[in-house]
Amino acid sequence: MKIFLDTANLDEIREAASLGVVDGVTTNPSLLARETGDPEAILVEICKTVNGPISGEVVATDAEGMIGEGRHLASLHENVVVKIPCIEEGLKATRVLAGEGKRVNMTLIFSPTQALLAAKAGARYVSPFVGRLDDVATQGMELVADIIQIFDHYDFDCEVLAASLRHPLHVVEAARMGADIVTMPMSVFQKLLKHPLTDIGLKRFLDDWEKVKAQMAARA
Fold first, then answer.
1. Average pLDDT for residues 85-93, to the nearest whole number?
2. What angle do CA 87, 91, 95 make, to 5 degrees?
3. Which of 12, 45, 112, 183 has its CA 20 to 30 A from that of 143?
């Protein structure tokens, strides 16, 4: 399973990328708006930092506008994936851009039928939003499972990218289901490595070693 970061913060991306386990990055207009500097320059710098798919999202809501923005975003760097919302105009734009060989990440997926239509339109990735469904008393992970089951029956060249993940259990569940990709904010990514028993065990090992060193020094 590939791990993406859902952020446009270069400090976070560089820190996570240094661990060697980050495969890509997803951004959106809201994330880029939080950062200081030109959004396109930030997107290019992210592409230089992580050699993998980097999603940059269009802001147009009509097919013609999305196609124009998508072509421009894709021209910024070979790693850029065009992120398009799952609406009627988005499907039209996805068909055109995919036909030109550009990768599309269809976002704001909240139903299996949306994912199915996105894959048929040529999307390279579909992004079901788990946490936002949980927020409205719906099991978000069930959507991921449904999409995976449907895609397993067909030969779609489309990966399931579980998005809007709020905690490590979402990541575990997505991995157990067989999601191709998970994307998460830095706060969730950092929790994947943390466990109190690891910290306790390491402290115990180091404390014991200090005792050994003290005993050796006393004998010298």
1. 98
2. 165
3. 12
Task: Please state, rounded to an integer, the average pLDDT across all residues of the chain.
Answer: 97
Q: What is the pLDDT of residue 218?
A: 85
Domain count for the chain, please give it: 1
81: which strand partners?
A: 55
Which residue in the list 2, 48, 83, 194 is annotated as catalytic?
A: 83
Residue 167 reports pLDDT greater than 80? yes
* 83 is annotated as an active-site residue: yes
**Rounded CA gap, 151 and 77, in Å?**
29
N- to C-terminal Cα separation, the chain: 53
- Indicate if the alpha-carbon torsion angle 80, 66, 180, 137 is positive or negative: positive
**Gap between the Cα atoms of 76 and 39, Å rounded:** 11
Q: Identify the domain containing residue 168 by its residue range.
A: 2-194
Q: What is the mean pLDDT of residues 1-15?
A: 98
Give the Cα separation of 161 and 125 in Å (integer): 6
Structure tokens at 179: 């999601």
The answer to the question of residue 66 being in a domain is yes
Q: Is residue 211 part of a domain?
A: no
Q: Report the distance separating Cα 75 and Cα 79, nearest Å.
A: 10
Flag whether pLDDT at 217 surpasses 90.
no
Question: Could you tell me which residues come within 8 angstroms of residue 17 by beta carbon, excluding any fewer than 6 positions away?
Answer: 49, 50
Mean pLDDT of 95-123: 98
